[in-house]
User: Fold Flavin-dependent monooxygenase from Streptomyces diastatochromogenes.
Amino acid sequence: MREGATVNATTPRIAVIGAGPGGLTCARILQRHDIPVTVYDLDASPAARDQGGTLDMHPDTGQYALRAADLLDDFLALARPEGQQMRLVGADGRIVFDGIPPEADTTEGNPEIDRGRLHSLLLDSLKPGTVHWAHKVTRVEPVGDGIHRLHFADGTTTDAELVIGADGAWSKVRRLLTDATPRYTGVTFVEAGFNDVDTRHPRLAALTAAGTMMALHNQQGFVSQRNSGGHIRVYVAMRTDEDWHQQAGLDLTDTAAVRDTLLSRFTGWSDHLLGFITDSDTGYVNRPLYALPVPHTWTHTPGLTLLGDAAHLMSPFSGMGANLAMLDGADLAQALIDNATIDQAVTAYEKILLPRSVEAAEAAAGAIDDAFSPDGAAQVLAHMTQHH
Assistant:
């Protein structure tokens, strides 16, 4: 096939790289319209790694995409509307703001869902064999006429008329479209986890409540999220150098040393909040936050496009990452359904995607800078008050 190939080709020559929410949403909608698609993912299986924390699905983005995928009712059956609660706490442990959602059914607002549950929902909606696990892309090679050859770590290759880069922050597909690479935002999260919280960690459970709690002071803080199954995921957040642990001579696998170093950085904070450091059931994971330069755009190239973090990696303080990825997937799938050729479809999609991505990324960059500024607590309080 050539770049003008019709979309409803009988051979599965649309390749999605990455089985995240955006890529799976795109594949689901394509399959609903009988357009063949194959998804390739580097993980050995769906259960190969933890899928992460909790997500709030917005009506005009994530929920819109789920409706297009005919999965909205299934999502609502799994969602946690009470998870919309947003709480701001001072360094002294005092509650400064408590945004409790009104008692309503799950169709209102931005109900929460665990990433793992959303991932399973999308995966289970696909035809068996759609996702090829243990397929790590090492190189994407143009072979002419809009066709690209995918090289996998196991030595195999396959060709596709359209390669959709849904492969995240360090996308291999993006390298053919742009020289842009993610940059460190200046903020690092150190993740900790707490199990059976209402029984084993009642003080931390009460502080987190039903949704998300943030405590910010002097460019540091805690973000705790209630997940399903009695689990709380916490991010100990710091504006710091990317190599902060190396400068401290810290071995990140030494749990006690990490705990003591974090405690030394949070001197003067409430003992209640310091429990998010001292009492972790899961140890600690260092997670420096990265973002693509803003604006991030590229010149249209036949046979290639991007969605999700591959297109617009931004800080999690946007609250839009997964929502936008799923909207990208839905919009790209719809463009492929509506247009006569793949190239026409991708052109139409990118005209929507690129300006939207720039706007969202600018907002995300501003949000993380505000939160981890010297007066971050006041900045976030003003935002919460305005939106609740």
Summary: The longest helix spans residues 342-371. The two ends are 52 Å apart (CA to CA).
